[in-house]
Design goal:
By secondary structure, the protein is mostly helical. It is about 75% helix and about 0% strand.
Amino acid sequence: MSGKSSVGAYLKNNMRQYGMLLALVAIMIFFQFMTDGTLMKPVNLTNLFLQNSYIVIMALGMLLVIVSGHIDLSVGSVVGFTGGLAAVLIVNQHWNPLLVAVVCLGTGALIGAAQGYWVAYWRIPSFIVTLAGMLVFRGATLWLLNGQSVGPFPKEFQLISTGFVPDLLPFIGTVFGMKQFNGIAFVLGVALAGGIIGLAVRARKRAATYGMVDEPFSFFVGKNGIIAVAIIYISFLLATYRGLPNVLITMAILIVAYMFVTNSTVVGRRIYAIGGNEKAAKLSGINTNRLVFLSFANMGLLAGLAGLIFAARLNTATPKAGVSFELDVIAAVFIGGASMSGGVGSIVGAVVGAFIMGVMNNGMSILGIGIDYQQVIKGLVLLAAVIFDVYNKSKSH
């Protein structure tokens, strides 16, 4: 079989895995062209990461919930409630921002755990439990803030979302002949690209020892080469502006951690097993109730973190904060290839799905497309992604 045909066959067999990544690239190229290059300008790129950070962070937790065969509709309300709690404690009560961050993360985790308890141990459908949670915490946010916006926050709290990693290597800018160049951003980007290539080569070698390599070598080289070049290019663009946003570092650490949990731990494999077939998982000795409970507690924790980041970015807490966030988060996970019936999905897919939504929002806003048309287009993209998922599943059977 020729190299081209083997690559084509591999792509066809793994379209579920790579389809949305190719869609993201196509959407970015389209909007880069339509906006006359505005999309990939350093300022807009930085804004893109800041705008979508809370959606990406919550998509990581939502993936685990959906993979385990459930759903959480309350995350937007939890974002609003934890942001409101932070505002009341910091602005009105003058608490230390670090202590408030711990309290808000704990509150988010407790809310998630409370909902997970009813789902896991009382077998109440997650749709009903979290729909109730959505209404309860939306009302609680209104009560907490007394129907008014509370702010502004002190500068140290705002740094959660609007701060940037300080440049520890300013001399690197002279190499490129630039006075304003964040050396640490570029070096970290190069290091990340190198690390990804190193891990990919190591994983391929390990798979080869067991005779489990089905990915054509040319595709492996091309895929990892494109990923490395894209990371280095984006880090270069960010370096020419203000460098790496603090929230991007937070996001990257969480993505790596959750990829490790889902791909390389017993807990991760067991969560997928629950979504695949809960009865079989229970018969094999897996404590399914506890894992479902923990997946909801984890979702609440990440919603609490997203609430802090969103409040810090707006520099105020409003009663309407987080409205419809749950729709964007759930859409991101499904667009990224997760299955509605559970057991299927990946962290990379959820992140790609979140950025597809983010790039579309950003690109359409630059083009001046109204919010009415934006909602219609996003709905159609979600529907297309789910149809694509169902079509792929029917073909595999």
